[in-house]
Amino acid sequence: MRKVLAVMGSPRKHKNTDILLDSVLEGIKKYNADIRKIYLKDLNINLCTGCYYCSKTGNCFINDDMNELYKEFNESDGIIIASPLYFNTVSSLTKIMIDRCQVYWSSKFILKNPSIDVNKNRIGMFIATGGAPYKEGHFDGCIPVIDFFFKAINTRYKYNLLISDTDRFPIWEREDILNEGFNLGVKFFE
């Protein structure tokens, strides 16, 4: 059975980003996947301190809920990161989690002993919602961050679902967008 980790990076439950993520997960249910949805706001994840402990050991010295996520990243076949657009990038909750994945980069490129299974084929999706109307470059601040994150966790970055103008037109009122999310979920493992 395939395992999917869905990471919800918004501090707001049952709002635009969360509802859009749920539409994708509904589509993924076609695969009878084991889906684990995690709300970052409910976890205790401390800031990366830049101490370089991971570049010496391949592990992070901080003992918090990130240890659970390290295990989930390693075991998952699909990883979905969902975040609202805050100041043209991912939310601070999401960025804190991403920063703590320095452990993967250090273990792979400094220690040459990856702390994640590099032979596992993982698929990645990024979901983002932005309140403002769409304009060119609206999501440009987060795409490189998410791209490097997926590379660090040995995940093929395959899908984006980037939705603008949610302040005026909330996700729950946009059947076309909910269907788009569902359909991306249906083809997630194709």
TrEMBL record:
Keywords: Flavoprotein, FMN. The keyword Aminoacyl-tRNA synthetase does not apply. Residues 3-132 form the NADPH-dependent FMN reductase-like domain. One of its GO terms (molecular function) is oxidoreductase activity. SUPFAM superfamilies: Flavoproteins. It holds the Pfam family FMN_red. This is NADPH-dependent FMN reductase. The lineage of its organism: Bacteria, Bacillati, Bacillota, Tissierellia, Tissierellales.
